[in-house]
Amino acid sequence: METSSARDDQSLASLLGGRTASIDATLPPVAFVAGWLLSGRSVAIGAVVAIVIGLAVAGFRLARGNRPRAVLIGLLGVCVAALIALYTGRAADFFLLQLASNGASALAWAISIVFRWPLLGVIVGLLLGQKTRWRKDRALMRAYSLASWIWVLQYVIRVAVFGVFYAMQAVVPLLVARVALSWPLIVLCLLVSGWVLRQTLPAGHPGFRKPQIVEIQQAPDAA
C-alpha cells in the first residue's frame, strides 16, 4: 500500500511537473542556433527561424486546448529574445532573457522565504484551492520554506552556468546548457523538494493536501 507521503511526492510532481512546457520552451532556442549555424552565423535568419518555430509550437498547443495565456507568454518570450539578439547583433544575446529571468526567479523565491510566504506553498496552495490556509499549519509552513530553497538552488545553478557561457559568448554551449538545465533539472528539483517536504513534516502529518489548522481554545472563565 502507498503511504501518504509517497502519494504526496507523486502529486507534487503532477502539480508542478510542466514537462511539456519545458520541452516546448527548448525548441525555439534549438531552432535559433540551427538557423544561425546553417546560415553562416546570421542572427537575423536565426531569429526568424526561432519565431517561426515558436509560432508553430503556440499554434499546436492552442489547438490541443492548452491555456492561451501560458502559450502566449511563451511565444512572447521567444519574440523578445529574438528582438534582443537582432538589436545587439550578437547571437549569445538570444539567451540573455533566459539568464535574466532565472536571476529574477532566484531572487523572488529567496525573498518569499525570508518574508514567510514561500513560493512553493503559494503555488501549491493556489493549485489546490487552499488559498492561504497552509500558512496556519506551522509544520507545513516550515516544510514549504525548506523545500523552496531547492527551487532557489536550481535557478542559481542556471544563472551560474549560463553566466559563464554568456560571458564567453559561447552560443552552442549556451544551447546545450539551455536543454540540459530545463526538464532534467526540473525533474531533479521536484524529486529533491518532494523528499524535503516528506522528511520535514512530522510523523502522522497527512501531507500538503490537508493543512492542519490547530484552533487555540480559550480556557473557560473561572466561576
Descriptive terms for the model:
223 residues; 72% helix; mainly alpha; 0% strand
Q: What does this protein structure show overall?
A:
Keywords: Membrane, Transmembrane, Transmembrane helix. With 223 residues, the chain is mainly alpha-helical. The chain has one domain. Helices cover 72% and strands 0% of the residues. It has nine helices and no strands. The longest helix has 30 residues. The N terminus is likely disordered.
Terminal residue distance: 52 Å
What fraction, in percent, of the residue positions are helical? Answer: over 70%
Q: What's the story with the biggest beta sheet? A: none
Sum up the overall morphology in one term.
Answer: elongated
In short:
This protein has 223 residues and is an all-alpha fold. The chain has one domain. It is built from nine helices and no strands.
Task: Please write out the topology.
Layout (H helix, E strand, L loop, with lengths): L3 H13 L2 H20 L4 H21 L4 H21 L7 H19 L4 H9 L10 H30 L3 H10 L2 H18 L23
Helix pairs in contact: 1-9, 2-3, 2-8, 3-4, 5-7, 7-8, 7-9
Organism: Fodinicola feengrottensis
Protein name: DUF3159 domain-containing protein
Keywords: Membrane, Transmembrane, Transmembrane helix
